[in-house]
Design goal:
Low-confidence stretches of chain A: none
CATH topology of one domain in chain B: FAD/NAD(P)-binding domain
Oligomer: heterodimer
Shape of chain A: globular
Number of domains of chain A: 1
Number of helices of chain B: 9
Distance between the termini of chain A: 53 Å
Order of helices and strands of chain A: HHHH
Strand order of the largest sheet of chain B: 7-4-2-11-22
Strand content of chain B: 15-25%
Radius of gyration of chain A: 18 Å
Largest interface: A-B, 37 and 42 residues
Mean pLDDT of chain A: 89
Number of strands of chain A: 0
CATH superfamily of one domain in chain B: FAD/NAD(P)-binding domain
Amino acid sequence: MKDLTFGTILAVFEEIFGIGLFWAMVVVAALVTMAYLYVLIRDHSISWRKFLLAQLSMPIGAIAAVWFVLVMTSSKLTDLGGPVDVIVFLGIAAAGAVGIAILVYTAQSLVMRQPKSEP
Amino acid sequence: MTKLTATRRQFFGLAAGGAAAAALAAPGDVRAQVATKARIVIIGAGAGGTALANRLVTRLDGAEITLIDPRVEHLYQPGLSLVAAGLKPANYVVTKTTDWLPDTVTLIAEAAAEIDPDAKTVTTASGQSVAYDFLVVAPGLVLDHDAIEGFSLDMVGQNGIGALYAGPQYAAATWKAAQAYTETGGVGLFTRPATEMKCAGAPLKHTFLIEDIARTAGTRGKLDVHYMANNNSLFGVPIVSEKVRMLFGDRGITPAYSHVLRAIDAGAKTATFDTPDGDVTRDYDYIHVIPPQRAPEVIRQSGLSWADKWTDQGWVECDMASLRHLRYDTIWALGDVAGVPKGKTAASVKWQVPVVEDGILAAIEGREATETYDGYTSCPMITRVGRAMLVEFDYHNNLVPSFPGIIAPLEELWISWLMKEVALKATYNAMLRGRA
C-alpha cells in the first residue's frame, strides 16, 4: 500500500459507506461509548446484574457480526484459508460481541434511571 | 480503588475536549500550493487522468487544467471480472466521468485527434486546438476485436462466446454465456492475447471463477476447462506462474501453452490458434475472447510511440521510472498507454499518479523530480468465490507484499477476497478523488 496514512484510511471508509453514513456511524459509536462511560461514572460502579445480561448478549453480537460480513461479501465459513483469516474472523466476532455488550449495558443503565445499590 | 467522581458537566467537558483534540489532529495536505500559470492538458479522464487532475488542483494555484475525453461513462474496470461471474450487476462498474472531476478543471468531451509535440498543441475531433505547457497522455488503450477473424462484439453472450473486457454490458452478456456453460458443460477455452494487456490476472480469474461456480453447482464433472496461454508461462511473474500451475493442477484446469487465438467460427464452434507448430483448431462449447490491445491511433500517429519496441502496439516511449517522454520533456505517459514493461492496472495507476504529479511540479518549480515508479502492480487473483491471492510485484518480478508476514501473497486467503470485495472499489474511488 502506498501512502497508507490515517487520511487514506478515512477516505477509503468514506467511500465504502458513503460520507453521510460513515460519519453517522462514527457519531453513533462515539455517542454509545460516551453514554457507556457516562453511566459508569454516574453510577460509580459496575452493575453486575446489568453486566450479566450484557454478557449473555455477547454470542448474539458475535454471530450477527460474522453473519453480516459473510452475507455482504458473498463468502462462507469454508473460505477461511490461513491463520490470518482465523484472526480476522475472530476479530469480527469479538468486535460484534463487545459492541453489543456495551450497547446492552448502556441501554439498561439509561432506561433504568435509578441504579440499584449493590454490594 | 479511587472512586470516579466526575460530575455530569465535567464529563461532557472532557468529552468535548477530546473531540476537539481529535479534530485538530485530523490530517490534511499541509504542503504549500505552487503558484503557476501553466497550461496542463490531460488526454483521458479515466483512472489516471482523473486522479492526477484531482491531485494537481490541490497542489497548484492558478494552473489551467484541461482534460480531453469523449467518454460520458467512467468504468471501474477491476469490477468487470465480478460482473462476468454474476457476482455484481453491470451498473456496479459504471459512474459518470463528470462525477469525479473537480470544478476548477475544464473537460472537453471530445476525442483527441492529433498531438503536435513540437508546437505543443492537441487538436480535438471537432478541430479545436488546445495549447499546452505540459501534456499528460492517459487515454487508456484500444481493444482490437477486429484482429480476431470471425469475431464481432454482437456475438458476445450467445453460442458460448464471452468477452468481459469489452465493457459492462458485454461483461454481463459474458456471464449469460458462461452461466449456460456451467449448466450444460463441454469444452471451455479461456484465452488471452499475445500483446501487452490490462490486468494479466483477469483471464486467469475468469477461468478460476467459472470453474468454481460449476463446482459449487455440482456440474463440474461436465466441464472440460482449458486455459490457453500466449507463451510458455501462465503469468508474467515466474513465481506466480508456478503457483497458478499448481492451482490449475488442483482444480483440474488443463493449460495449453503458446496458443494465441487468431480466429473463431461461431457457427461451427471452433477456434483457431497460432502456435509454434502452426495453426491448431479446437472445438469449444464456451470460449472467452480477449483481443489484442494497442495504444489509441492518436498516440501512434503523433510520433509518441516507441520506434523499436512493441511496434505493433504503439505504447508511449517514456522513461520507466519517471514516465516522462524520452524525446519530449513536456510530455508524460500515465496508465495503460505507457510503454513500460508492467503496469496496466488500476493499482499501477495509483503508484504512477504521484510520480507524474511530482514530475510536473518539479518542472514548474525548476527542480529535479524525486518520485519514481518501480513497476508496482497489484492483482487480487481470485482463485474461487470467497478466496484470492493478493499478488503484488514490480518491474523485477519481485513480490512486494503490502502486508509482509501478515497476508501471504501466494496463499489463497479469505482476507484477500474481503479486501477485493470491501476495500478495493473504495480505495479506487478515493484514488480518483486524489485522496489515496
